[in-house]
Write a structure and sequence with these properties.
By secondary structure, this protein is an alpha/beta fold. The protein has 13 helices and 12 strands. It folds into 3 domains: 166 residues, Rossmann fold; 62 residues, no CATH class; 54 residues, Arc Repressor Mutant, subunit A.
Length: 317
C-alpha cells in the first residue's frame, strides 16, 4: 500500500561518488513527482565537514545543507565509489547512526554499504555490494548477511550494487510508496524494461530475439532477482504481484516455459558461477551467499546445468 505523506531523502556524498547513481536516483524521484497528484519526494545533499566533494568524473558536488542542521530524513543513502575502505567520514557516520537509532531508513548506493557495515549499521541485515568489492565485503563484515544480487531491501535497510541497479532500487521504492501503476509510468517514461502494460490478451512480444514479458511476469522476475538468496514462496510471490498462484504459474509456463522456482534456481546458479570463477570465496560461502541450502545442493544443481562441478570448474578456469 502507498505510504501516507511526502518523503525526504538525504544523499550522503563521499569523495569520488559515481554520478550515475546520484543522477539515476534523482531522475526516478523527479518523474515520480511529475506523475503523483502532488510532489511526494524531496531531497538534500550532505558532505563530510559540509565541504564540496569531487565525484568520479571530477565534477564538483556541493552540500545543500550542513550535517548539524540537516532535517531528519525519511531515507538516508550513502553514495560511495571506488576504494570505499579508504573513505573517512566520522561525522557523517555518526549522523547516520543517529538516524538509524530514530528508526529511519538507511541505505547505501554502489559501495555505500561498506561505510554502513563499518559503522555497524548492517549487522544482522541482508545487504549487497558492487561485484568488484563483494568478496572483500563478505569477508570484512561477517555480521552482515551479504547477498550477491542487484539490490536488497531488508526491513529499514536498503542497498544496491551500483550502476543500473540504482534505477531498480528507486523504482522499487516508488512502487512501495506510490503503487505499482505509478512505478510503471516512471519506468515507461525512462524507457526502462518494465514498461509494458498487461493487455487483455497478455500478448508476449518478441523483438530481435529479445523477450518482452507482460508486466506481471516482469514484476515477478524483478522480485526473484532481488530475493535470489531468500526462500521464495510461489503463493506469496503471486500475492505481491497481485494475481492468484494459479495465474502466476500459467503466465510463467506460457511466457518463460519454467516455473518461478526453476527461474530462481537458474538465477542462483548464474550468480554462483560468477563467484566460483571470479572470487576466492569457499564453495560453502558461495552457496550461502546465493541462497542454496547447502554446498552439496549447489553442487548437484551446478553439475546438472553446467555438466561440471563447481570445484572442477574453478580448477579448470
Amino acid at each position: 500500500m502507498p505510504k501516507v505523506g511526502p518523503r525526504h531523502i538525504s544523499f550522503c556524498l563521499c569523495p569520488r561518488s559515481p554520478m550515475f547513481c546520484i543522477a539515476s536516483g534523482l531522475e526516478v524521484l523527479r518523474h515520480a513527482n511529475r506523475f503523483a497528484s502532488e510532489p511526494f519526494y524531496s531531497w538534500s545533499f550532505l558532505c563530510e565537514n559540509d565541504e564540496s566533494i569531487q565525484d568520479s568524473n571530477d565534477l564538483w558536488l556541493h552540500p545543500s545543507t550542513s550535517i548539524n542542521s540537516a532535517t531528519s530524513p525519511d531515507v538516508a543513502l550513502v553514495v560511495a565509489g571506488f576504494e570505499p575502505t579508504k573513505i573517512k567520514a566520522p561525522k557523517m557516520m555518526q549522523w547516520l547512526q543517529q538516524q538509524a537509532a530514530a528508526g529511519r531508513v538507511i541505505g547505501g548506493l554502489s559501495n555505500g554499504a561498506f561505510l554502513l557495515a563499518k559503522a555497524g549499521l548492517l549487522d544482522g541485515f541482508a545487504a549487497t555490494e558492487h561485484w568488484e568489492n563483494f568478496v572483500s565485503f563478505f569477508h570484512l563484515y561477517p555480521n552482515t548477511l551479504s547477498r550477491y544480487q542487484r539490490f536488497a531491501i531488508d526491513r529499514n535497510r536498503m542497498t544496491c550494487s551500483g550502476g543500473s541497479s540504482t534505477l531498480d532500487l528507486f523504482i522499487e521504492m516508488v512502487r512501495n510508496d506510490l503503487g505499482h501503476e505509478l512505478a510503471q509510468q516512471v519506468s515507461r517514461q525512462m524507457l526502462l524494461q518494465d514498461y509494458s502494460m498487461p493487455s487483455p490478451s497478455e500478448t508476449l512480444l518478441v523483438l530481435d530475439g529479445n523477450y518482452h514479458f507482460s508486466a506481471r511476469v516482469q514484476r515477478a522476475l524483478s522480485l526473484l532477482d532481488t530475493e535470489v538468496s531468500q526462500r521464495v514462496n510461489v503463493s506469496g510471490l503471486a500475492e505481491r504481484v497481485g494475481i492468484s498462484r494459479r495465474e502466476l504459474l500459467r503466465l510463467f509456463r506460457r511466457e518463460i516455459g519454467k516455473t518461478p522456482g526453476e527461474v530462481l534456481n537458474q538465477r542462483r546458479l548464474e550468480r554462483s558461477q560468477s563467484l566460483v570463477l571470479h572470487s576466492h570465496l569457499s564453495l560453502v560461502q558461495i552457496s550461502s551467499a546465493v541462497g542454496f541450502s547447502s554446498q552439496s545442493h549447489m553442487t548437484t544443481c551446478y553439475r546438472k546445468l553446467y555438466n561440471i562441478t563447481p570445484a572442477q570448474h574453478r580448477r579448470q578456469h
